[in-house]
Design goal:
The chain has about 160 residues and is α+β, with helices and mostly antiparallel strands. It has one domain: 2-C-methyl-D-erythritol 2,4-cyclodiphosphate synthase (60s Ribosomal Protein L30, Chain: A, 2-Layer Sandwich), CATH 3.30.1330. The protein is built from five helices and seven strands. The protein has helices spanning about 45-55, 60-65, 75-90, 115-125, 140-145, and strands at about 5-15, 20, 25, 35, 95-105, 130-135, 150-160. The strands form two sheets. It has a five-stranded mixed sheet with strand order 4-1-7-5-6. α1 (about 45-55) runs parallel beside α3 (about 75-90) and α3 (about 75-90) packs across α4 (about 115-125). It is globular, with a radius of gyration of 15 Å. The structure holds magnesium ion (MG). Magnesium ion binds near residues 10, 37, 43 and 46.
Amino acid sequence: MQLRIGNGYDIHRLVPGRPLILGGQRLLHPDGLGLDGHSDADVLVHAIMDALLGALSLGDIGLYFPPDDPKWLGADSLLLLEQVASLVRSRGWQVVNVDSVVVAERPKLKPHIEAMRAAIAARIGLDPDQVGVKATTNEKLGPTGREEGIACHAVALLQQL
Ligand code: MG
């Protein structure tokens, strides 16, 4: 059985006047902050896309969805994830599982985790139990700890069809 593993990382700035979208879910930050970016700035979905692409050495999401291309302005990252998932399938691979950890001080992500897993799984063609989404704070340390941004780490395991 041919297996490949990939990892992905992303971070976006927390700023006023932007929506906070994680795993396709619109959340409310207690200070009204959201994630800055060209697309919807969904760091969780971006990290997962990079893990999927990385597993097959297909580059990163900047290659497929350049941040200076007006086409992707405000883009729904779940739609981009769908495209990455179909690229993986077209190369003859299927996703075994995905795991991720979002690093954010606030808001509390726990009430939204199940919805995030379901949304991500649906776009990749997986069951929710094949998509891990975890949340941690950074114990107020560093840029994520100071709430300058939200970061995410992800891994993906692929199996050749
Ligand atoms: Mg990003």
